[in-house]
Design brief:
Blueprint (H helix, E strand, L loop, with lengths): L1 H16 L29 H4 L3 H4 L33 H8 L35 H4 L21 E9 L5 H9 L5 E4 L1 H6 L1 H9 L3 E4 L12 H19 L5 E2 L8 H9 L3 E2 L4 E2 L11 H16 L8 E6 L3 H17 L2 E3 L1 H4 L12 E2 L2 H5 L14 E3 L2 E6 L2 E3 L6 E2 L19 H15 L1
Parallel strand pairs: 1-2, 1-7, 1-8, 2-3, 4-5, 6-7, 11-13
Antiparallel strand pairs: 9-12, 10-11, 11-12
Helix pairs in contact: 1-15, 9-10, 11-12
């Protein structure tokens, strides 16, 4: 009887917590095919997936066709604008483009670059900032109606929102092993070109329970691209992620943070929400525009913020990268101190109480308080059935719910930091909070 009650209550919490967002996107992704079941992934044991030596990991491989088939004729050219290789004239792209009412698109110009590659902001009123152009003003509150609102900090206090851009990196085995050992889940913003180059890396990300999000096809400043190019960058990167992970992102991060209301509008047509950040480690710059010591100083300053009460009313989303061995090593070296300084270190979906971070609704994330809660005794996790889908009973382990055919829902105490005090999920309605309290009572008492 308790399990039935918990099932109903959790279902209501899920529906209430996701009701506030704009549900624009079409069902374009449902025509895509994948052989990957995100709930049952076995990664081939080859040198590239097992070695800890970067040079061995980064030897190109052809994926097992029983898992992933890549026909280059069906994809844009790797690391070039996603309209290349005739992809802007493919039947699927033209069908998607034709399904969008472009008469409603904002009349915002395509930006240009200066000779040095920087964005040309001449003539743009940065103070009025009519287009909510992040690169000009760090604007995170769109001026345009009917676009998904930016995510830029964690609702939950004293929380480090863990996120890594530019993956999957071919040499990330040791880094992902470390995250797994620490039972840490992050939001991984994957580049479509990297996913097709290193598909087993993307499989590793979803298998380990990370929140997979989009970082475009070719990592260009998005405001400098035409509407067709922006649409293609989203479409083919989402499709690549779907091919290699079995899930389709609903969240994306603009390369360099470069987004305005025109790009947000196109993203919204695909059901995508923009995620930026509140703190930037500048880890990518180590040894380039900043010294390694300067970047280490950034980490130290952010760790101190976790100790001195800076984030007692809300948390932060931190920009970091898996772009190279330096950035990944910086993460490994600093995460133990981050774990000591912050009450909670979780992925963005969890810290924002995002129930459904993917277009598919057979993967759902726990509300924050359940994700971080320990069993009353501190021993074995509580279990409960939460529903079914076409693959069988829906079950949950750690941060997110999976369809494995087993009738158990596990809020793992090992995955939790253990809340020292209750945190507010501000975008959940009072009724949802009440239901969540009932669920917690049923689970732990």
């Amino acid at each position: 009887m308790k399990l039935i009650f918990i099932t109903a209550a959790l279902a209501q919490v899920a529906s209430l917590s996701s009701a506030a967002s704009i549900e624009a996107g079409k069902d374009f992704w449902q025509s895509w095919t994948t052989k990957i079941n995100p709930f049952n992934i076995t990664i081939p044991q080859i040198t590239q997936t097992t070695s800890l030596i970067p040079s061995e990991q980064c030897v190109y491989y052809q994926p097992d066709p029983s898992l992933i088939e890549i026909n280059p004729k069906e994809w844009p050219t790797i690391w070039e604008t996603a309209t290349t290789n005739g992809m802007n004239q493919s039947a699927e792209f033209l069908a998607l483009k034709g399904s969008i009412d472009w008469s409603k698109a904002p009349n915002i110009p395509v930006r240009t670059k200066n000779a040095d590659g920087s964005l040309n902001m001449s003539g743009y009123d940065e103070n009025a900032d009519p287009d909510c152009w992040w690169s000009a003003s760090t604007c995170v509150h769109p001026k345009l109606q009917d676009v998904n609102k930016d995510v830029y900090y964690c609702y939950e206090p004293e929380t480090w929102g863990l996120s890594y851009d530019d993956g999957p990196n071919c040499s990330h085995n040791a880094f992902y092993n470390f995250l797994q050992e620490k039972d840490l889940k992050a939001t991984m913003f994957y580049i479509g070109s990297n996913v097709l180059d290193w598909p087993y890396g993307a499989m590793r990300g979803i298998r380990d329970g990370h929140h997979i999000a989009d970082h475009t096809w070719s990592h260009q400043p998005m405001t400098t691209l035409t509407n067709d190019e922006v649409l293609a960058e989203f479409y083919y990167s989402m499709k690549a992620i779907h091919l290699a992970t079995g899930v389709t992102p609903r969240y994306w991060r603009p390369p360099y943070g470069d987004v305005d209301d025109r790009v947000r509008w196109v993203a919204t047509q695909l059901g995508l929400t923009t995620v930026v950040w509140s703190l930037d480690t500048d880890d990518w710059a180590a040894g380039l525009t900043e010294t390694l010591q300067q970047v280490e100083g950034n980490y130290e300053a952010f760790i101190e913020m976790g100790k001195n009460g800076t984030f007692t009313t809300k948390g932060q989303i931190v920009l970091s990268h898996e772009i190279n061995n330096t950035t990944m090593q910086l993460a490994v070296e600093n995460l133990p101190q981050i774990l000591n300084a912050y009450q909670h270190v979780v992925d963005v979906a969890t810290c924002m109480n995002i129930t459904y971070p993917y277009q598919e609704r057979d993967v759902a994330f726990f509300p924050f308080n359940i994700a971080i809660a320990k069993n009353k005794t501190g021993d074995q996790p509580a279990t409960a059935v939460v529903g079914t889908n076409t693959n069988g009973p829906v079950t949950a382990t750690g941060a997110w719910i999976s369809a494995t055919g087993k009738a158990a829902l596990s809020a793992s105490p090992d995955a939790a930091q253990g809340s020292k005090k209750n945190s507010a999920a501000f975008h959940i309605t009072p009724n949802a909070v009440l239901l969540l309290a009932v669920v917690m009572t049923a689970l732990f008492f």
